[in-house]
């Protein structure tokens, strides 16, 4: 299978390419900047996207490219660019996928929901009410994917960490060493997603035609960011204190975050997909890979 992967400079795109190649598939990656092993592509250019994908003739596309700086997305001067990437750029990729007859995986987010209540959000729930502009544009991306092609997998994820790039785990380790005490919110609840595990699932999906909308994070129960930070310090053997605070007390974020990011992942097993491992196990493997384990 020939698979085109957008956004390979990011955490997930990097791991998807490695997973594909490790399983004998041909993976072609793209990002904004040219590189010897990737295609230079600006997804906001409709004609460019159509030309590149028609020339490559992929069997499937994994669309990882996105604007993910949630707070910066709230800045008025960034909004046009955020929409151009997350909504219009996704539309360009989805239409080109349809024209090429390619399967499409679109990565979405828990931020399409308003985070109310305590019940886990089901993948087929349509009670969308994003709290921030990033969530609005990712929801717009979902809608254009559904409109463009039936051969799609929309996969909502949350609390992502991976080997390639910045993430919460790296930030906590740095702050824990620098300060010895870190304030972390304890009223936002969800589950982490390790990109190496997610990449395996996405390739599993591509090898089927079980299209639809799914939720995918690691297993192991729902936790707060503060609980995640404590486990990071414990597994890393770092003597640092986590000071739990409310979102209001933390008070530094420009974009509103959902309090309830619990995602119901039961549809994965129902459709024959292997769920992701426990998040504690994922964290342990990540720390070993990065040389940070105790």
Question: What does this molecule look like?
Answer:
It is a single chain. The chain is globular, with a radius of gyration of 19 Å. The termini are far apart. The protein has one domain: 3-Layer(aba) Sandwich (Rossmann fold). By secondary structure, it is of the alpha/beta class. The relative contact order is 0.15. 40% of the residues lie in helices and 20% in strands. Helix 3 links the parallel strand 4 and strand 5. The strands form 5 sheets. The chain has a 7-stranded parallel beta sheet with strand order 3-2-1-4-5-6-11, sandwiched between helices. A two-stranded parallel sheet has the order 7-10.
Tally of separate domains: 1
- Give the strand order, joined by hyphens, for the main sheet: 3-2-1-4-5-6-11
CATH architecture, by name, is 3-Layer(aba) Sandwich
Counted by DSSP, the helix tally is 10
Question: Can I get a quick summary?
Answer:
By secondary structure, the chain is of the alpha/beta class.
Question: What structural keywords apply?
Answer:
294 residues; alpha/beta; Rossmann fold; 7-stranded parallel β-sheet; 15 strands
Detail the topology: elements first, then pairings.
Elements: E1 2-6, H1 11-22, E2 26-31, E3 38-40, H2 46-56, E4 60-63, H3 79-100, E5 103-109, H4 133-148, E6 152-157, E7 160-161, H5 168-179, E8 181-185, E9 189-190, E10 193-194, H6 195-206, E11 212-215, E12 218-219, E13 223-224, H7 225-236, E14 241-245, H8 247-250, H9 266-270, E15 276-278, H10 279-289
Parallel strand pairs: 1-2, 1-4, 2-3, 4-5, 5-6, 6-11, 7-10, 8-14, 12-15
Antiparallel strand pairs: 9-13
Helix pairs in contact: 1-6, 2-3, 3-4, 5-7, 7-10
């Amino acid at each position: 299978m020939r698979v085109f992967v957008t956004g390979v400079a990011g955490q997930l795109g990097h791991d998807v390419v490695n997973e594909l190649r490790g399983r004998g598939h041909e993976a072609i990656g793209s990002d904004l900047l040219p590189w010897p092993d990737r295609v230079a592509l600006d997804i906001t250019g409709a004609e460019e996207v159509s030309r590149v994908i028609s020339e490559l003739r992929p069997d499937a596309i994994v669309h990882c490219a996105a604007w993910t700086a949630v707070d910066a997305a709230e800045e008025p001067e960034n909004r046009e660019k955020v929409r151009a990437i997350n909504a219009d750029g996704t539309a360009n990729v989805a239409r080109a996928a349809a024209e090429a007859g390619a399967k499409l995986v679109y990565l979405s987010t828990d931020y399409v929901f308003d985070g109310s209540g305590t019940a886990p959000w089901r993948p087929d729930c349509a009670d969308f009410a994003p709290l921030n502009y990033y969530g609005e544009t990712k929801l717009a991306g979902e809608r254009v994917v559904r409109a463009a092609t039936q051969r799609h997998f929309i996969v909502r994820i949350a609390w992502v960490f991976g080997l390639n790039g910045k993430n919460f785990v790296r930030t906590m380790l740095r702050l824990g060493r620098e300060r010895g005490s870190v304030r972390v919110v304890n009223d936002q609840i969800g589950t982490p997603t390790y990109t190496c595990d997610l990449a395996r699932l996405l390739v599993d999906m591509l090898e089927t035609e079980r299209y639809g909308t799914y939720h995918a994070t690691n297993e192991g129960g729902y936790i707060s960011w503060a609980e995640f930070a404590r486990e990071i310090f414990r597994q890393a053997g770092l003597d640092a204190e986590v000071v739990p605070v409310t979102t209001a007390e933390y008070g530094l974020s420009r974009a509103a975050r959902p309090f309830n990011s619990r995602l119901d992942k039961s549809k994965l097993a129902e459709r024959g997909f292997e769920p992701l491992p426990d998040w504690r196990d994922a964290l342990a493997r990540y720390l070993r890979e990065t040389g940070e384990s105790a």
